[in-house]
Amino acid sequence: MPDPQQVAKNHWYRNDDIPGVPGPDREIQGYGEKPPVIRWEGGAKVAINIVINYEEGSELTFAMGDGRNDGMYELPFDVDDQRDLAKESMYEYGSRAGIWRLFRTFDRYDIPITVFGAAVALERNPRVAEKIRERGDELVGHGYRWIDHYEYSREEERELIALAMESFDRMGLTPRGWYCREMSVNTRELLVQDGRFLYDSDYYGDDLPYWTFVEGESHLVVPYSLAVNDCRYIMGTGFGSPTDFVDVAKRTVLQLLDDGDECGRMMSIGLHPRITGNPARAHGLAEFIAWAQQQEGVAFMRRIDIAEQFIEQVPRPASPAERPNS
């Protein structure tokens, strides 16, 4: 691997990436001016995918031997050298109260969702796994624990993926999609080598799924988004109130319905039980859902259904080895 300091010193003039740098190639251009004209369930132009990030109980804690406390807390306070019981209790709000308030909301409006689930979080609260099965929601693998995969070696990450999938299988939930907390340069290759995954969502660079190639094999990417994501309630600049969330979500739908072309697109809404599971924020979510259901050309869909309907309209491309005269 090139020495980073030497690269910084001598390659400031480059207009391309350095060959051999680990990880997927950057794909700058994408679909360009004319993306594929996709239509979703019922002929909808906009597919809304609500994602619940279920992580509570698998986050970093002194109680689990991690030697540090996790982030994404309601207040900008950190306890560095011991258990942060206040922060732990915020996470427990998500698993004790918030997740059930969200499920009641989805039941009321008959909304299918996707759950980005950490295996340990579901193991520690098996009633949530039962509810996912009962509702017919989709589970996407969110790691064995809610940890940054880039902190681990390639073989350690391979083991983490295997542990997670074994756990999901025991719960009767077999993901076909994957989304890490923070992917590593090895993640996508490991998923393709594993062979059980239709797609991954460790990407923020588009409003449509797209095909890429990994070690010569075609692989589907179904992008995620942090724009309409409740982390903005507590991290950085973002939502001061549920009104802000509703406004951003509505404006996203309106723009995608009339985006200047005929192309259909997807919209991801990222939620966390410990954040949007709080009453006022859940009320804002319900307000948006009720509004969106009244809009013509909008469908709420699971991520797996978006992937499969995309594949029907944009079939898997041949790999270089499968192409004539390759």
From TrEMBL:
Q: Which residues form the NodB homology domain?
A: 85-301
Q: Which residues form a coiled coil?
A: none
Sequence segments annotated as region (Disordered): 1-33
Q: Name one Pfam family in it.
A: Polysacc_deac_1
Q: One MF term from GO for this chain?
A: hydrolase activity, acting on carbon-nitrogen (but not peptide) bonds
Q: What are the BP-aspect GO terms?
A: carbohydrate metabolic process
Question: InterPro entries under this entry?
Answer: Glyco_hydro/deAcase_b/a-brl, NODB_dom
Mind telling me what this protein is named?
Polysaccharide deacetylase family protein
Specify the species.
Leucobacter ruminantium
